[in-house]
Amino acid sequence: MGCSWLLILGLIQIVAHSLEIQGSGEEPIPVIAHNVTGVLEEDVYLSCEYQGSAQINKAEWKRRISSSKFKRLAGFSNGELFSRGDFSKPDSPTNLTVRMKVSSVEAEGEYICEFQEEEENPFGSVFVTVIAKPDIRIEVNSETINDTHYQLVSCSAVGGRPIPQISWLVGGRPPSDFPFTVNESKTLHSNGTSTLISTLRFPTHLQDEESVICVVKHETLPNPKSTTANVETYGKLISAAFESL
Ligand SMILES: *[C@@H]1O[C@H](CO)[C@@H](O)[C@H](O)[C@H]1NC(C)=O
Ligand SMILES: *[C@@H]1O[C@H](CO)[C@@H](O)[C@H](O)[C@H]1NC(C)=O
Ligand SMILES: *[C@@H]1O[C@H](CO)[C@@H](O)[C@H](O)[C@H]1NC(C)=O
Ligand SMILES: *[C@@H]1O[C@H](CO)[C@@H](O)[C@H](O)[C@H]1NC(C)=O
Ligand SMILES: *[C@@H]1O[C@H](CO)[C@@H](O)[C@H](O)[C@H]1NC(C)=O
């Protein structure tokens, strides 16, 4: 009798233990990967590490090119590390950290890293966001309409991604409505970048400051970038007029 009680107790413990295992839910995926942002024409690191303990027979980075097709990019296969195109060889079969050159905006998207164990294929996913540093240019032009001389200062942020923000400072302050006008135009290029041109326009006879500043804000710039343009002032305009008399 005492023996069978022990048996029942033992059975209860076994059942409780197996319930506990089931209750702990799915095994966490033993793969660590993080999303990254890459700058166009620079390098970015895609990192993916296998944290499990099983033997890895095969491992690879791949990208989906259609619903059923993948492109293999770098990894470990037939006992060797491999890579192609813009990718470097990974560190090891369990550390698929690779360097990728961001050669075009098409590099943006999801990358899958997959490991082949005996039984399972644990995988991770990394989303790469591509940004591009704009070239900043500034230029001063003038026009005379109905005897009024105007200056137009154009500040261009060429080939940025995403589109940058441009603002102006005149005498250390944002230009007030009058007599300044600001016009913006945006162009989207086929390479996935954009150009933003902001034009500050004012009548020269109402301008006291000898320079204006264009401020460009963008993800690729740690601080907003200021560019100064020298402009003509009312004083200069008058002395030039006297000289020509
Ligand atoms: C994985 O490889 C990268 C690049 O070589 C290295 O920086 C990183 O420390 C490695 N991770 C581990 C856990 O060894
Ligand atoms: C990575 O980026 C993708 C796409 O933007 C997003 O759906 C996912 O939640 C991100 N993952 C992490 C861990 O931030
Ligand atoms: C220039 O003067 C003409 C005649 O007074 C006027 O019709 C026109 O609107 C003016 N143009 C501008 C840009 O102010
Ligand atoms: C993208 O195209 C624009 C316009 O043609 C060009 O100015 C810019 O340099 C290009 N950017 C890259 C990274 O090729
Ligand atoms: C702003 O730009 C648009 C398009 O280039 C032009 O039609 C408009 O006249 C400009 N406005 C000013 C105030 O310069």
Q: Could you describe the 3D structure shown?
A:
This protein has 245 residues and is mainly β. It folds into 2 domains: 28-131, Immunoglobulins (Immunoglobulin-like, Sandwich); 135-243, Immunoglobulin-like, CATH 2.60.40.10. 13% of the residues lie in helices and 47% in strands. The chain contains 2 helices and 17 strands. It has a 6-stranded mixed β-sheet with strand order 2-10-9-5-6-7, with no helix packed on it. Strands 11-12-15-14 form a 4-stranded antiparallel β-sheet, with no helix packed on it. A 3-stranded antiparallel β-sheet has the order 13-16-17, with no helix packed on it. The radius of gyration is 31 Å and the shape is rod-shaped. The N and C termini lie far apart (128 Å). The site of one 2-acetamido-2-deoxy-beta-D-glucopyranose (NAG) has 2 residues, from loops. One 2-acetamido-2-deoxy-beta-D-glucopyranose binds next to loops. Residues 30-129, 134-232 form the Ig-like domain. Residues 1-18 form the signal peptide. Belongs to the nectin family. It is found in: Membrane. Keywords: Cell adhesion, Disulfide bond, Glycoprotein, Membrane, Repeat, Signal, Transmembrane, Transmembrane helix.
